[in-house]
Design a protein that fits this description.
This protein has about 600 residues and is of the alpha/beta class. It contains 21 helices and 14 strands. Bound molecules: adenosine-5'-triphosphate. InterPro entries: DEAD/DEAH_box_helicase_dom, Helicase_ATP-bd, Helicase_C-like, P-loop_NTPase, RNA-helicase_DEAD-box_CS, RNA_helicase_DEAD_Q_motif.
């Protein structure tokens, strides 16, 4: 064990890779979410066990739990294109007009959509997530306590149950009623807090009852193809995220008339056209491909769109996308009726981005923020190690053996060339790793992601930019091989990277390799560690603020609460909800029992 590894705490065994079967169904031995046993109590204190296994013992244990032997890529096959179809062509529920009012179940499809890698279980540590709510709305938004009391369409309620979402998360408690009231929404909440379902559930629920009336044409005998006339457009910054949101849409549209489609750069055009020509009510897209299609009126019209949703909104408001976004938000033949609803979601929302968001939203939009914009949470154990540049690879190798139990790990590098080098290095040492970055062709990207999700390659090396929003089950360890520099996202990027672990009440570890090249992010890093009660290493102690209770995060959240445009309503007569002593919004709603 090297000196770096000695500093690296191994995580507790509760949520480890092996505890819920590496590739799908939860292990029956895993304590349920209510199993507040002694072990859980100990985990609550976030104590991490010290390493006890040798590398050989660890490897044997890892193999027993699903680590595969390394297998070389067949790069030739990737060049030939998709062998088994792109992810966008994945199976979904196809409505048949003969169904009448109640559509039948399709057990095989149900298993695909809600089982295996898609089967989520809420972790045992929801109480470590922030619950303070800042809400600004002209009209009262009464938070829901359960999905059953939200007035949702019965089909989506059934799908929520199949997805095993037992209770709404804090962001869902407020966003669902706001969307059901027909409001434009800007919502900010921590990574892994369920923002996707927060917009998907109420939007689809509202449309399900009226789908027959609202939906566009379907191909028939006289016209074998139709153009896509979506009712909902969801725009996301990366291809992988588009596929993931499509998966959630496939689940939530199950047994409904709403047909989801996804389009992204790299998905073969012919494939996309064929899919859209079968009918499309929900369109998930990356911005470049969407504007491309908007220029082809025989393929796509935006004239029926009732909901435009921007996920990872601060990334999308980034100047690189600003032109495409302006076109999507109001260009082309976009429906500009007053009832067109706009929504924006992210875990981070710098002040500049918030100002831009206001340009696109109606004056009475509802703003919902859980905790502080850009806040990490205490379920992520953050650890910073001082490592010289030329020792980083060895260090990462050792870190992979530092966990008490093997789990999925993502290693972030700042450069594509570094990603390739680190992946090669680990592969040559027998680690089942894979990698992803924007220079890879689409087949390689989808294959790498599939291998990682399914656990065939439980170590993924990636550039940070590509990883926004990824939700992969059982990611136990994030390693920042490089820390993001302030020129390239800084602490915002760091928060998104470490947020790939410890999702929805689980715990995880984030280890960052630090040296003098990272001084520009040091102060922000220390502030984040202090806020999350994580240990500050000796070499960063001098940056610990004197008053740790009043750290200036430079995010201007307080401005929002107090200012004219503020969250919390202020003079605008808004229905402000702030946390009471119990940490739940003091708005009269009864908090769910176990959040
Ligand atoms: N109410 C719920 N109960 C249990 N699990 C849920 C619930 N809502 C969502 N989830 C699950 O939580 C996980 C994280 O959700 P999601 O990806 O939407 O997070 P997010 O807030 O968008 O994160 P990020 O900011 O990183 O994109 C998903 O696996 C999702 O299926």
């Amino acid at each position: 064990m090297s000196s770096w590894g000695a500093d690296a705490p191994a995580e507790p065994a509760d949520d480890a890779f092996g505890a819920s079967d590496a590739f799908g169904a939860p292990d029956p031995n895993e304590a349920g979410e209510d199993g507040a046993d002694a072990a859980a109590a100990e985990n609550l204190s976030l104590k991490f066990a010290t390493l006890t296994l040798s590398k050989e013992e660890f490897r044997n244990k890892a193999v027993a739990k699903g680590w595969t032997e390394t297998t070389a890529y067949d790069y030739g096959a990737f060049q030939e294109g998709f062998q088994t179809g792109s992810h966008g062509a994945s199976q979904k529920y196809e409505w048949n007009d003969e169904y009448g009012d109640v559509a039948p179940k399709i057990p095989d499809l149900e298993r695909i959509l809600f089982g295996g890698e898609f089967q989520v279980s809420k972790g045992k540590h929801m109480e470590n997530l922030p619950v303070e709510v800042a809400l600004d709305s002209e009209e009262k938004v009464a938070p829901i306590s359960t999905f059953d009391d939200a007035g949702l369409h019965p089909v989506i309620l059934e799908n929520i149950k199949l997805a095993q979402y037992s209770l709404p998360t804090p962001i869902q408690r407020y966003t669902i009623p706001a969307v059901l009231q027909g409001k434009d929404v800007v919502a900010i909440a921590q990574t892994g807090s369920g923002k996707t379902a927060a917009y998907m559930i109420p939007t689809l629920s509202k449309l399900m009852g009226k789908a027959k009336k609202l939906r566009g044409p379907r191909p028939g005998a006289s016209s074998p193809k139709v153009r896509a006339e979506p009712l909902v457009v969801i725009v996301v910054p990366t291809r992988e995220l588009a596929m993931q949101i499509f998966d959630e849409a496939r689940r939530m549209c199950y047994r409904s008339m709403l047909r989801p489609c996804v389009t992204y750069g790299g998905r073969p055009y012919a494939d996309t056209m064929d899919d859209l020509a079968q009918g499309c009510e929900i369109l998930i897209a990356t911005p470049g491909r969407l504007t491309d299609l908007m220029d082809k009126p025989h393929v796509l019209t935006m004239s029926r769109v009732k909901y435009t949703i921007i996920d990872e909104a601060d990334e999308m408001l980034n100047t690189d996308w600003s032109e495409a976004l302006a076109e999507i938000m109001g260009g082309g033949d976009t429906n500009d009726d007053a009832d067109h609803v706009y929504m924006m979601f992210s875990a981070t929302f710098p002040k500049g981005a918030r100002q831009m968001a206001r340009e696109y939203m109606s004056q009475s939009y509802v703003r919902i923020r859980i905790g502080r914009a850009g806040q990490a949470h205490k379920n992520i154990r953050q650890n910073i190690l001082y490592v010289d540049k030329d020792q980083k690879r060895e260090c990462v190798y050792d870190l992979l053996f530092s966990m008490e139990d093997p789990g999925r790990t993502i290693i972030f590098c700042n450069f594509k060339s570094e990603v390739d080098l680190v992946d090669d290095f680990l592969y040559n040492r027998g680690i089942p790793s894979t990698s992803i970055h924007s220079d890879r062709n689409q087949c390689e990207r989808e294959d790498a992601m599939r291998a990682f999700r399914q656990g065939k390659a439980p170590v993924l090396v990636a550039t940070g930019v590509s990883a926004r929003g990824w939700d992969v089950k059982d990611v136990k360890h994030i390693i920042n091989y490089d820390l993001p520099s302030c020129m390239y996202g800084g602490i915002t990027e760091y928060i998104h990277r470490i947020g790939r672990t410890a999702r929805i009440g689980h715990q995880g570890l984030a280890t960052s390799l630090y040296n003098e090249r990272n001084e520009d992010i040091a102060q922000d890093l220390v502030n984040t560690l202090v806020e999350c009660d994580c240990e500050i290493p000796e070499f960063l102690q001098h940056l610990v603020p004197e008053n740790t209770q009043e750290i200036d995060f430079g995010d201007d959240s307080e401005d929002e609460i107090e200012g004219e445009d503020g969250f919390g309503g202020g003079d605008a007569g808004g229905a402000a909800a702030v946390a009471d002593d119990s940490g739940f919004a003091a708005d009269g709603a009864v908090p769910p029992a176990d959040w």
